[in-house]
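G., the chain you wanted modeled:
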Amino acid sequence: MRVTNSMMVRSTLRDLNLSYARLARTQEQLSSGRALVRASDEPSVAADAMRLRALTRRSEQYARSLDDAHGLLGSADGALTSSLEVLGRAKELAVRAGNSGGLSDPGARAAIAIEIRSIRDDLVALANTRHGDRSVFAGNASGAAYNPTTGSYTGDAGAVRRDVAANTSVQVNVTGPEAFGVEGGPVGNVFEVLERMAQAVANADGTALATEHANLDVATARLGVATVQIGSRAARMNEIQVRAEDDQLRLRTLLSEAEDVDIVEALVNAKAQENAYQAALQVAAKIIPMSLLDYLR
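Predicted structure as tokens:
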């Protein structure tokens, strides 16, 4: 077959374009830091990368849910622990008032009753603990969990749940009645117990004081159970978070292997391709015949 000048020119230009395209692609990989610049480069690898990106985004969402769950559980745990400490002081006052002769001094009775009511107010404030814009013990209701004046529950019985892993949803709250007791009835919630205890001290009613002292023990035990529940859920969150961090690291490693360029390898390729392109240009300059314009110069 006869090779004409035009055929040789077209073939040379085609080879030059291919060489330049390879060099341009390598330079694009270096500038972007990605081995996959376009999905058409390696469709199967690109499909894996998109799947890994979706899994990574889902893992990041679970991580945000875990952070929120940790915050809610931490706020609840702090409030319940402080509440137990406050009730410990109330128990000391009940014991002091119930000692022989403890109710005989009107001044002492008045001081103890005032302190017990102050403890009640502190406990209501703890029961209204907030995490961000959410009341920790109000269930799914908005606003405060308890009326600060009457101590009446204004929340609901809703469970606050967080999706913290695939097919794993965890309740991250206890409601006010679960922790502080149900309002009304012969016993009532802890705020009613403290109010009746203060009244019994003020009235020097030893029988009523003994009853409320027993009721205070029941309220303290209830708070202790709620604290243990919150603590066990927080421990479970810690275990899930460790697994989630390991999963995130694994996904990011796989995504990096699929998408990221090997800088050293790409630099070596770029240099080799640049040399090849320069050599091709020099050869093309020698084999492409001169045109009339070359003679006119």
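The CA atoms of residues 116 and 274 lie 85 Å apart.

Shout if anything looks off.
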